[in-house]
């Protein structure tokens, strides 16, 4: 297909893909987006072996069926976001699926292995078996802890969430929990700490980030949270230069701070 001045030039890997040169398209694609794929994986994983295993799985999935996933994006008549934004979403889903498959074989995370027996059992039921909080309580109450009250269970459940939801590994564990439930939705325990605090601030931060465009949010995640060099972010996102990353991240962070201040969260509270 011949390009005209009114049509933007396509990426080299896309051109090869459209010619059904799948091996050449894959080599060019991976050369350009390898760093972005690793950054998306490290959003969840810290352990080197985990990162490399997930990277191999992501490459296998993206390359399967003559790059079917990549072709599906290329063939869309309209795109709501940049390809890089779409790619990060796909890789993060593959990462969560990898952890779910691994831990679903009863291999507890390092964090879970260090939990007391009751909290480890809660972790197994909620995060691995994906039981609701009520189901988890009923199973524990009917089994190993017949004297456990629901109030005591809520306290232990809250402590379990706190133990496994710290750091980057905690992000994937939160995604493994049932989507319809969250620790901040638990009934308040009059004898324990408030359900606000760190969990509430995290919820407000997530809401503020959700107000950004997909591209701006990705810039913040890669440049600010993942601490990739601005030059690298500009390259993988197709921006003009590092200055464009600085400018857009500054404006995005200003918007996030404004939303947090409206919600009553000060900078020193974070």
Summarize the model shown.
The chain has 270 residues and is mainly α. It has helices at 12-18, 22-42, 48-74, 83-103, 110-113, 117-128, 133-142, 150-164, 167-176, 198-210, 214-225, 230-237, 242-262.
SSE order and pairing:
Elements: H1 12-18, H2 22-42, H3 48-74, H4 83-103, H5 110-113, H6 117-128, H7 133-142, H8 150-164, H9 167-176, H10 198-210, H11 214-225, H12 230-237, H13 242-262
Helix pairs in contact: 1-2, 2-3, 2-4, 2-12, 3-4, 4-9, 6-7, 6-8, 10-13, 11-13, 12-13
Cα radius of gyration in angstroms: 22 Å
Q: pLDDT below 50 for ≥5 consecutive residues: which ranges?
A: 1-9, 167-173, 179-185, 187-196
Average pLDDT score: 75
| Termini Cα gap | 52 Å
Order of helices and strands: HHHHHHHHHHHHH
Total strand count, please? 0
Helix content: 55-70%
Count of DSSP-assigned helices: 13
CATH fold-level topology of the largest domain: Rna Polymerase Sigma Factor, Chain: A
Structural class by secondary-structure content: mainly alpha
How does this model look, in words?
With 270 residues, the chain is mainly α. The chain folds into 3 domains: 12-103, Rna Polymerase Sigma Factor, Chain: A, CATH 1.10.1740; 110-193, no CATH class; 203-264, Winged helix-like DNA-binding domain superfamily/Winged helix DNA-binding domain (Arc Repressor Mutant, subunit A, Orthogonal Bundle), CATH 1.10.10.10. The protein has helices at residues 12-18, 22-42, 48-74, 83-103, 110-113, 117-128, 133-142, 150-164, 167-176, 198-210, 214-225, 230-237, 242-262. α4 packs across α9 (167-176) and α12 crosses α13. The model is unreliable at 1-9, 167-173, 179-185 and 187-196 (pLDDT under 50).
């Amino acid at each position: 297909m011949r390009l005209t001045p009114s049509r933007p030039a396509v990426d080299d890997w896309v051109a090869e893909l459209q010619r059904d040169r799948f091996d050449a398209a894959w080599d060019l694609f991976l050369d350009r987006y390898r760093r972005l794929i690793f950054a998306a994986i490290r959003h969840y994983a810290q352990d080197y072996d985990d990162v490399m295993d997930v990277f191999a799985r992501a490459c296998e999935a993206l390359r399967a069926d003559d790059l079917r996933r990549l072709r599906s994006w290329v063939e869309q008549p309209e795109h709501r976001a940049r390809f890089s934004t779409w790619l990060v979403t796909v890789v993060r889903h593959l990462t969560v699926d990898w952890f779910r498959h691994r831990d679903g074989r009863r291999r507890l995370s390092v964090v879970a292995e260090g939990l007391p027996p009751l909290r480890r059992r809660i972790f197994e039921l909620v995060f691995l078996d994906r039981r609701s909080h009520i189901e988890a309580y009923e199973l524990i109450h009917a089994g190993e802890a017949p004297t456990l009250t629901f109030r005591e269970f809520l306290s232990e459940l809250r402590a379990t969430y706190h133990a496994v939801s710290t750091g980057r590994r905690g992000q994937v564990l939160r995604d493994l929990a049932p989507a319809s439930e969250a620790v901040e939705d638990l009934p308040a325990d009059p004898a324990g700490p408030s359900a606000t605090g760190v969990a509430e601030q995290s919820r407000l931060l997530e809401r503020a980030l959700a107000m950004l465009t997909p591209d701006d949010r990705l810039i913040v995640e890669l440049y600010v949270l993942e601490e990739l060099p601005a030059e690298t972010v500009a390259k993988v996102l197709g921006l003009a230069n590092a200055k464009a990353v600085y400018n857009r991240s500054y404006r995005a962070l200003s918007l996030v701070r404004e939303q947090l201040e409206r919600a009553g969260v000060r900078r020193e509270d974070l």
